[in-house]
Write a structure and sequence with these properties.
The structure holds two protein chains of two kinds. By secondary structure, chain A is an all-alpha fold. Chain A has two domains: about 35 residues; about 120 residues, no CATH class. Chain A has four helices and no strands. The longest helix of chain A is centred in the last third of the chain and has 35 residues. Chain A is flat and about 65 Å long. Chain A starts with a helix and ends in a 12-residue tail after the last helix. Chain B has three domains: about 55 residues, no CATH class; about 60 residues; about 100 residues, no CATH class. Helices cover about 75% and strands about 0% of the residues of chain B. Chain B has nine helices and two strands; from the N terminus they run αααααββαααα. The longest helix of chain B is centred in the last third of the chain and has 39 residues. Chain B is extended, with a radius of gyration of 27 Å. The chains are: A mainly alpha, B mainly alpha. Chains A and B meet through helix 1, helix 2, helix 3 and helix 4 of A and helix 1, helix 4, helix 5, helix 6 and helix 7 of B.
Chain lengths: ~150, ~260
């Protein structure tokens, strides 16, 4: 097996394993899977897709000076984001497929955005901790002599 | 003014302007304008719980305001820990490493106190509804990322076992906080509520990661299909005699120098 593929698989397993263990513990404590979990997941996927799509669309526009700002990729990305909005709108307004404990379409959409903002803040802080602590560990080692001339 | 319009002007528009300001600040010509927009919009956004108290969305701004202080302490701590070590530039005094380590753990302790004591962000007389979204998400993602960093450290680096163990220790610490929160009631939040929201936090994390990857994939597809549709660039003409002479002159003027 390719070594790099094996490493990626190992990294993926190490990312998922703690979450799986904690969820198993949670279930063993008598808490069933939350009934709104799927709705939350679907709302998170769609909201994240639209927000990241808009950020990428903005980057496409503001970084395109050197390429004379071609219209085709901008339109392509705009259509992709619009498709996401359409899916959210249709799934939220049709019966209660994606409607959580909110009164209607507008409040669900606004609540999705705020929840995304809060969750992404939590994920960002977690990222800062993991990356920062990793670098702190790397720089915390005693300086090693790589070549004899350094002595 | 109607509550909905107030929320639009004092919460949503500043939130959108933060993004637009960030994009403007990328460009050298509009950098100052962009940064000014970001700063002013951020202030308006963060004070929205007081300017638009009737809007439910401002609970998000209230939560972000509540976690700013421990986050700054965390950043200060990590900065001290990184630059108090062996770095080639910008090295701090070695005591910064210990003070940074202390600051980082105090910051994590403050977050824990916000869950278990009455430090919990309170909005409209109740626990901020987004605290129970933020806290399990942050803990779960920290556990996961620290475990990944630990395996990455030992997998890709050489002789990094000790550092890998410390990172694994951080992952276990966050997992232990989650486990304790599953069992021990806080002053304002019960263990049952925490357990209930843990599934939703997992749904949020996987959803955000998948949605982000999907958007990046579509973005790559759009760029690839556009670039593919472009005609091949034309070959340039070979250099003229005059251009070759000029290049040789420049090259000659740079050849030479004293031997060491």
């Amino acid at each position: 097996m390719n070594k790099s593929i094996a490493s990626w698989k190992l990294l993926l397993i190490s990312a998922l394993l703690p979450i799986v263990v904690l969820l198993t513990l949670n279930i063993s404590l008598g808490e069933g899977i939350h009934e709104e979990s799927f709705k939350r997941f679907a709302n998170a996927v769609l909201t994240s897709y639209i927000v990241f799509g808009l950020i990428l669309l903005g980057n496409l526009f503001f970084y395109a000076d050197s390429r004379h700002r071609p219209l085709a990729p901008l339109v392509g990305m705009l259509v992709a984001v619009a498709f996401g909005v359409l899916v959210v709108w249709s799934l939220t307004s049709y019966d209660d497929i994606l409607l959580e404990a909110n009164s209607g379409l507008r409040s669900q959409l606004l609540s999705n955005i705020v929840r995304f903002l809060v969750s992404i803040s939590g994920m960002l802080i977690a990222g800062i901790i993991a990356v920062g602590f990793t670098f702190a560990m790397i720089t915390g080692r005693e300086r090693r002599i790589l070549f004899l001339e350094e002595e | 003014m109607e509550s909905m319009h107030q929320a639009a002007i004092l919460f949503w528009i500043p939130l959108i302007l933060i993004g637009i300001g960030s994009w403007l600040s990328i460009n050298k010509k509009t950098k100052i304008l962009g940064l000014s927009v970001v700063v002013i919009s951020s202030i308006i956004f963060l004070i929205s719980p007081w300017t638009v108290p009737t809007s439910d969305s401002t609970a998000g701004a209230h939560l972000i305001l509540s976690i700013i202080a421990p986050t700054i302490l965390l950043l200060y701590g990590l900065h001290g820990m990184i630059f108090g070590g062996n770095v080639p530039v910008g090295r701090l005094d070695s005591s910064a490493r210990w003070s940074g380590f202390f600051a980082m753990f105090v910051s994590i302790a403050i977050f824990c106190l916000m869950h278990w004591t009455n430090f919990t962000p309170v909005w409209r007389g109740e626990v901020n509804p987004y605290w129970i979204v933020f806290w399990p998400t942050m803990l779960l993602f920290s556990t996961s990322l620290c475990a990944t960093a630990s395996i990455g450290m030992v997998g890709y680096g050489e002789d990094r076992f000790d550092e890998s163990v410390k990172l694994a220790g951080m992952s276990i610490l966050f997992a232990a906080i989650i486990y304790i929160a599953m069992l021990v009631d806080g002053e304002l939040i019960t263990a049952g509520e925490f357990r209930d929201y843990l599934f939703l936090a997992v749904a949020d994390i996987f959803g955000i990661v998948m949605g982000g990857l999907l958007a990046i994939g579509i973005f790559a597809l759009v760029i690839w299909s556009y670039e593919k549709s472009l005609p091949n660039p034309e070959n340039t003409h070979p250099p003229t005699e005059h251009e070759i002479k000029k290049v040789v002159e420049i090259a000659k003027s740079h050849i030479g120098g004293e031997e060491e």
